[in-house]
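Bench notes, afternoon.
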Amino acid sequence: MPEQLERLKTALADSYAIERELGAGGMATVYLARDLKHDRLVAVKVFRPELAASMGVERFLREIQITAKLSHPHILPLYDSGEADGFLYYVMPYVEGESLHDLMAREKQLPIHDAIRITKEVAEALGQAHSYGLVHRDIKPQNILLSGGHAVVADFGISRAVSVAGGEKLTQTGMAVGTPAYMSPEQAAGDENLDGRSDLYSLGCVLYEMLVGQVPFTGPTPQSIMARHTMDTAPPPKIMRDTIPDDLEDVIYCALAKAPADRFRTATEFAEALEAVITGESPRLTKTGIARRPRRRAKSHRPLIYAAGAVLLVGGVFAGWQLLPRGPARDASAGGLDPTQVAVLYLNDLSADGELRHLADGFTEALISSLSQVRALNVISGNGVAPYRESALPPDSIARALRV
């Protein structure tokens, strides 16, 4: 928006000369600027107006001061922050180089030693932040910058400011901190009381991606990906890259444990386990208590809502088949219905405040996606069943309307 950019340039003109946009995300835009006082290039991150309004100036400035205390070689420092003409912003060093996301887009899979080193450096950075009570909440390759061959974690400011200062108003803007492909199960479930172990899960996802070339879980929608974090076990990395050491696979599965209590207790333990892989000392013998990787096809512990949905689905399909006549006349007597056509209705969120609706939707979409892989079935899309979400119609009426 040219008008907004001109307004921003004017608002910051006494301290920073905005040169160009570096990138934009769901919650903020980053600009390359020159720090006029110190004659250096910096990156200025400016929050979207609606998000800035939901946070409020005083709380934003108060909370981001905690972020300013961080000082670590693998954490991008905070130079400045403030409010100008309605804009909330903070200033960071401009890092010449690329992000881990850019590197992986080019290389797909990284050398094992490089992946371990980068993960260890990020874990060390997280350890320092966690000691201040700071949880990043959005560890992903885009927030890991590579400077001089070393990892630097960015955006502690946005996670702290948005999650704490934004509070309950954040959901009203339609935005949330976190990226579905890297969210811990507890973050996907909407838990507001996250601790550092949530970041370790996200870092485990990043390590998995560096080694394998893809994230542990994918899906057709953000909700379905979040649902898979809560219910599925990641495919063994060694299946896709057999040179991955067994001990390193153990480390990955410990970081990706569904229950926080089953993960590394601290970022320091995560880093120590990675160091043990490098030195050849079996991390299973350390105090971290690393969970052994699955030797057979892993069985995940499904949430009750998913199990209930699966039971209802199977029951409905079975009942539909039972109602159809047996034998060759089945198709004709069913009024021309295709017995291979299946519909999965959206699960209802029965929680008190509806906070689990995104997960309920994710389970439904994951079921639709999985069943769609079965060639013998014709599965109605999510858009096809959406009109019947929370419908008061009886199931048989919906079935007739959908011709299933």
